[in-house]
Amino acid sequence: MLFLCLCSALVVTAAQLVQDDLTLTRRLGQTVSFSCARTDQCYDEYVYWYQKKETETFRVILDINRNNGDIRKSYSSHPQKNDFSAVNKRKGWELQIRKVKVDHSASYYCSCWIRGSHRNWFLYHCVLLWGGGWYLIFGSGTKLIVTDEQVVKPVVSLYPAASSSLLCVASRMVPPRVRFSWKRQKDNGPAEDVPSAGDEQLELREPGRAASILLLGQPEDGLYKYSCSVQHEGGRVEARTRAELPAPAASCPPSRRAAEPAAVQQEAELVPVDPVQSRYQVKLLCLLYTALIVKSLVYCCGLSLLRSLRDQGPSAADYSRPH
């Protein structure tokens, strides 16, 4: 069981296709297309597209040849497969809907087959266990929203939640889906991604808002300017603050000064947090850790179930597996 969980986690994180668009908002009758990057790592020339609605499972739509745009959909049982086509854009061949309908509201995922390599012994044997050397990789998905509402960029607020953490909140956005990223800059040096080894990032989501918490570790001496960037369909919004994190002294425990407000870009604002709100954040963190543990257990059990079902007979995806 543990081996299967480790295999599933490694296979999922080993490679991934890239879908830059989190959401795409369209009105009835408009045209939309979904991009999929990093298809050069795919073993064969076909990229497979799936539709996922809120209350349904993944359904294959069609396959698109990433070199010439040729479409295969004869094997697909999707009732709307004729609504979809391929279009050649700057990033390559994309999945297209020429006239959007309400029934098209869903998330769309690209996928392709890749083969395990002997260079990574553990990954290679995991892949042999799961599918004879082949496994599917997916993009993160793009959600199509069919509505007359206007897209509204988020308002980003940056909070010095404590002496060793920063809180970035995105609110008032339409649609509500966002993606957070953190960077830091020392003195006048170049900006860099916050290293995951030293600093931990947590995310919280609720209707109408989303938050990312950066728990600071033990950075080197000097002043750091931390920036929180929020990716949204309406554009990217960035907020910045400056936090001084002195090096720990040899004769006393390490200490940190509270974050000092600085300039914030665009709609972002920097406000202090009162003690009541700080306690609220601690409770949310505890709840988040519990949810992550439960999610991991459910994920491993689900993959083990898929493995057992796969042993009982070929799945629909096997018909498109390269030979």
Structure overview:
- The chain has 323 residues and is an alpha+beta fold.
- It has two domains: 2-149, Immunoglobulin-like; 155-273, Immunoglobulin-like.
- 19% of the residues lie in helices and 35% in strands.
- It is built from three helices and 19 strands.
- The protein has helices spanning 2-14, 121-131, 275-312, and strands at residues 23-26, 32-34, 46-52, 59-65, 71-72, 84-89, 92-97, 106-115, 134-138, 142-146, 155-162, 165-171, 179-186, 192-193, 200-206, 209-215, 223-231, 237-244, 269-270.
- Strands 1, 3, 4, 5, 8, 9 and 10 form a seven-stranded mixed beta sheet that branches.
- α1 (2-14) crosses α2 (121-131) and α1 crosses α3 (275-312).
- It is globular and about 60 Å long.
Global mean pLDDT: 77
State the CATH topology of the largest domain. Answer: Immunoglobulin-like
Number of domains: 2
Radius of gyration in whole Å, from Cα?
23 Å
List keywords for this structure.
Immunoglobulin-like; five-stranded mixed sheet; 19 strands; 19% helix; globular; disordered N terminus
Q: Can you summarize this structure?
A:
With 323 residues, this protein is of the alpha+beta class.
Indicate the topology:
Blueprint: H1 2-14, E1 23-26, E2 32-34, E3 46-52, E4 59-65, E5 71-72, E6 84-89, E7 92-97, E8 106-115, H2 121-131, E9 134-138, E10 142-146, E11 155-162, E12 165-171, E13 179-186, E14 192-193, E15 200-206, E16 209-215, E17 223-231, E18 237-244, E19 269-270, H3 275-312
Parallel strand pairs: 1-10, 11-19
Antiparallel strand pairs: 2-7, 3-4, 3-8, 4-5, 6-7, 8-9, 8-10, 11-12, 12-16, 13-14, 13-17, 15-16, 17-18
Helix pairs in contact: 1-2, 1-3
